[in-house]
Predict the structure.
Amino acid sequence: MYFTEEHQLFRGSLQDFLKKEVVPHIDKWEETGTIERFIWEKFGEMGYFGLATAENDGGLGLDLFYTVIFLEELQKIDSGGFAAAMWAHAYLAMTHLNKNGNAAQKKEFLTPSVNGEKIGCLGVSEPFGGSDVAGMRTTATKKGDTYVVNGSKTFITNGVYGDYIILAAKTDPSAGNKGISILIVDLKSDGVSANKLNKLGWRASDTAELAFDNVVVPAANLMGEEGKGFTYIMEAFALERLIMGINAHARAEYALEYAMQYMSERETFGRPINQYQALRHRLVDLHADMDMCKQYNYHVIYKMDRGEYVVREATISKLRSTKMADDVAYDCLQFLGGYGYIEDYPMARLLRDSRLGPIGGGTSEILREIIAKIIIDKKEYRSPSKK
Ligand SMILES: Cc1cc2nc3c(=O)[nH]c(=O)nc-3n(C[C@H](O)[C@H](O)[C@H](O)COP(=O)(O)OP(=O)(O)OC[C@H]3O[C@@H](n4cnc5c(N)ncnc54)[C@H](O)[C@@H]3O)c2cc1C
């Protein structure tokens, strides 16, 4: 219903590309926590980073179902970390450039990002708190034709090996969420230092704690209007949350397919284990939950592609899909018995990687708060760009 023949051809060629160019390196990158630069350039050459970027800016300007395919296939090579590095660049950092970058900013940062020459990241979360975005403490003080940035960010995907950060900082600390602005900061600037964090999953991706000590940023690197950063972040969250929902259904689908294959081959008591009712029924429940999330996510992306502002739907997508994927990963590991626990089989990594779903990009508790405000308090979220 949603995918044309062109979409399917794209899926096939992406699968071939990932199998040939990425899969042979994944175990090494998971071990070292470093994705080598050559693969970013290859993604750039293939146009994968520019699926949602306008043709004028070097992208392909395609509908969002190409993005869905990109995300789904990345999940199916079983490295949540590799996938995160790619989509954080293409959809966390580049979404802000696509939407709010001016011509000079697009030339300097967006087009090289499409080409895989520059790697981007998004810096919102801080050591003092990630959920309370308005409470951020990093400041950007205007001095002549520059801003001077002081403060710190944490948990930043691509923050160690990236080239630039789309940074949220307070240009007017007395104005609450109306004092937040977005700046593009070159990560090689004097005064920026990065510490790589060791983590449970997403091991191929680098996650940084970043400190900014009197970092001088050209005022020309302000994105959009000063003081509008909070609304830009909230607007971008709809896509980010939907992306995490789509990642979750794809990861769950992959886990179920793998488990079903395994269960058809593994025998106990002289029968394949897929013949035991206890396992069959659990598998059916998981499959049904996965399929409900998948169809819902397709529907929401369809609405978003038509320009609808889908805050409620994207929030529900992430809330439910990431919980479903965690349940699927947990039980599929169980279906494999002891082999589920062994690194040579995909479930151990999948379970680790999946656990970030209900945390990153807005925790499930915060998402429930947002949905409660919409459905109980009748709060309306309108797209800032449509006001
Ligand atoms: C691997 C990884 C990659 C990430 N990548 C990025 C990135 O690229 N860019 C970026 O900006 N951030 C990134 N994040 C940060 C992520 O978005 C935050 O971790 C998340 O938003 C939660 O913030 P916190 O960790 O500070 O938790 P806190 O805000 O300290 O919350 C702690 C706990 O309290 C709960 N809680 C907080 N407030 C409330 C409330 N009002 N009601 C009920 N419960 C509440 C939370 O749900 C959570 O369970 C990443 C995180 C990880 C782990």
